[in-house]
């Protein structure tokens, strides 16, 4: 079996004017990503996602990888990330390169799964897993005025039992948003907060102490992703677990997060971290430092599918059945047809659980009409 065709397919969707949403750093109206489609000589098709703007990701796939992939056996998938670090030299750590590698890697795993008749999470060494616990990624900052409680109330009505909300716009705002979310979610629900790196360490510390009474499960990106000393400073001063990783890519950057427990939770994005091969390596490194792994997802349905399969493969180490800790999987609740419309059978997080596809590979079928509708090339 060998790869005979490589296609990069940029996708985009824009929100209406005045309907931008985002985080404490600002608003956005555009959702974009790049899918990769691989086909083999026996007719198998594999899908992956490069969580990067279309023009850059497409050019990277076509100029740096496509020629070498033609004729490649998909079972050689784990060589892709390694080659990206060494050929071309010095470019492997670039986010767009790693995003392209991520898409190609996931597409290869999708084909391998189809070839052997197994879902990806079983190929990665996971035990049989049929469902995960989704958490609503919601309560974004928005251009339009709306009650801050509206999105978290909608998430509860949909059946979510956990949620992550945006904070990071100042102490008073942080406390109000976290208090509101906790009151609506209830005392027993997991509640995470995301500061999106908008604070200096002393500001993040002040906020963390002010919201501690609301029993926050983790604080995500309290300082900028490159501020490793800030993460280490905060870990010494607060009890709430710290999470990071969506803006990191490749094994070497994640090693810096994991070493000496710089953070408590790493969050590889399967469309950016180097794909399933790198994510599995990252998870192995994390287990040696007893750091938890929870994938980050703000992708299309293909990136979501890869993250679901990866999350389903993760070990519960060091837990036994006597220390229950659900594998939480992020589910963005903002408007995104690249997630909601792209599959023949979209993922459904309602009711407090999300099914793990048991079909071979990623277990998804692309809706070709939707694919053409959102193509941006």
Automatic annotation (TrEMBL):
Protein origin, superkingdom: Archaea
Listed PROSITE patterns: MR_MLE_2
Name listed for the protein in its UniProt record: Mandelate racemase
GO biological process: amino acid catabolic process; carbohydrate catabolic process
Needed co-factor(s): Mg(2+)
UniProt keyword list: Magnesium, Metal-binding, Plasmid
Keyword Metal-binding: yes
Cleavable signal peptide: none
Domain Mandelate racemase/muconate lactonizing enzyme C-terminal: 148-241
InterPro entries (alphabetical): Enolase-like_C_sf, Enolase-like_N, Enolase_C-like, Mandel_Rmase/mucon_lact_enz_CS, Mandelate_racemase_C, Mandelate_racemase_N_dom, RHMD-like
Disordered: annotated span: 339-377
Membrane-spanning ranges: none
GO MF: hydro-lyase activity; magnesium ion binding
